[in-house]
């Protein structure tokens, strides 16, 4: 179901009184559930009681914004996350640094406030990506900063069939050059400063790696671009092909990075699965299709959002600080089509 299609209110959510939860399915916005505010100490208990209902709504619609909980601090938000998804994932292979608040609860990725984070699926380049994202807005920005959404099955259907077919056959390739200047360092990304542990992780997750003379690290990994949803079986456009491509960067930023690092050693870039470069026209096409199928709702302080990471892509729009959104991930979901070939051990990108 596309986000832009109004959905009926489930009978069990139809308001019986002014104080009952009210479901809002307006075109152009994600599904919103307005709930009466519990006492702050009771919010985690409320989340535990409503877990099945909330998770069912996410399964049905791909995402859900819960408004009215009044989430106000890291401890409370973390407790809510754990009631909704008891086993939170440790963030690995992050492309930008995050602050860890408590195990499994992180800040948003560090990314310039004036630059958008284009549509993507969280850690779609990981061997075991999360199936569920949980976000809590503690401080809403003065302007901008929405976490916009797009239905990945709808996006797939809107892309040119020949382009989808090529990516479905070849997958996509992510190349990364870890350094100290741009994005997460390899120690931040892998959660260790031990090269041997990094190498073991890479071998176990089909990542080619090569250490540089300056102590930096380069990696390559091929991943499927189209997967089947583990619950519905529907084909989904699931990747970060456009977001992590050089042509999505602002022109002046791209020119600077190419000048400093060279075209083959950018902090991150994407290619076709066979190694061919992806042209600017293709990146613009993908981003334009995303834009045509984007829904958004400005954050309000205290909001909670749940996102089916396989079915639903998300972005972060530019904003005026401050903005504090906490993130947790749960439910690893393996790709179910276009499996990548095993990476040669220690091969040079």
Distance between the termini: 40 Å
Q: Name the structural class.
A: alpha+beta
Q: Order of helices and strands, N to C?
A: EEHEHEEEEEEHHEHHEEEEHEHEEEEE
Compute the number of helices. 8
Overall radius of gyration:
20 Å
Overall shape: it is globular
Strand order in the largest sheet:
1-2-3-17-7-20-5-4
Average pLDDT, rounded to a whole number, is: 90
Strand proportion: 25-35%
Main β-sheet, in a few words? 8 strands, mixed
The helix content is 10-25%
Low-confidence stretches: 4-18, 338-348
Number of strands: 20
What would your notes on this structure say?
The protein is of the alpha+beta class and 349 residues long. It has helices at residues 43-61, 74-84, 152-158, 161-170, 186-190, 195-204, 251-261, 280-292, and strands spanning 22-24, 32-34, 63-67, 100-102, 105-107, 117-120, 130-139, 143-144, 149-151, 172-178, 208-211, 217-223, 226-228, 235-237, 268-272, 294-295, 304-308, 312-316, 319-320, 324-332. It has an eight-stranded mixed beta sheet with strand order 1-2-3-17-7-20-5-4, with helices on one face. The protein has a four-stranded antiparallel beta sheet with strand order 6-18-9-16. Strand 2 (32-34), helix 1 and strand 3 form a beta-alpha-beta unit. Helix 1 (43-61) packs across helix 2. It is globular.
């Amino acid at each position: 179901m596309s986000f832009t299609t109004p959905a009926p209110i489930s009978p069990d959510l139809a308001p019986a009184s002014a104080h009952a939860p009210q479901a809002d399915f307006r075109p152009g916005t994600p599904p919103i559930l307005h709930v009466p505010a519990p006492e702050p100490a009771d919010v985690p208990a409320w989340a535990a009681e409503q877990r099945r209902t909330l998770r069912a709504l996410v399964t049905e619609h791909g995402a859900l914004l819960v408004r009215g909980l009044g989430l106000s601090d890291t401890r409370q938000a973390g407790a809510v996350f754990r009631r909704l998804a008891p086993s939170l994932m440790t963030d690995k292979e992050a492309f930008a640094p995050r602050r860890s608040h408590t195990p499994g609860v992180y800040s948003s990725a560090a990314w310039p406030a004036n630059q958008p984070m284009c549509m993507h699926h969280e850690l779609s380049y990981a061997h075991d990506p999360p199936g569920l994202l949980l976000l809590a807005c503690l401080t809403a920005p003065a302007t901008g900063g929405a976490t916009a959404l797009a239905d990945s099955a709808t996006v797939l259907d809107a892309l040119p069939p020949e382009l989808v077919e090529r990516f479905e056959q070849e997958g996509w390739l992510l190349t990364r050059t870890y350094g100290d200047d741009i994005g997460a360092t390899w120690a931040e990304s892998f959660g260790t400063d031990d090269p041997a542990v990094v190498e073991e992780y890479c071998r176990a997750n089909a990542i080619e790696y090569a250490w540089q003379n300056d102590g930096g690290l380069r990696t390559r990994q091929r991943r499927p671009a189209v997967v089947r949803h583990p619950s519905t079986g529907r084909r989904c456009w699931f990747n970060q092909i456009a977001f992590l491509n050089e042509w999505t960067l602002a022109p002046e930023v791209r020119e600077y990075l190419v000048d400093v690092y060279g075209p083959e050693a950018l902090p991150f870039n994407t290619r076709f699965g066979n190694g061919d470069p992806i042209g600017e026209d293709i990146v613009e096409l993908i981003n334009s299709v995303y834009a045509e199928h984007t829904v958004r709702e400005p954050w309000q302080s205290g909001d909670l959002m749940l996102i089916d990471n396989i079915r639903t892509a998300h972005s972060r729009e530019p904003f005026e600080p401050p903005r504090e959104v906490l993130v947790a991930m749960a439910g690893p979901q393996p790709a179910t089509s276009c499996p990548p070939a095993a990476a040669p051990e220690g091969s040079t990108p």
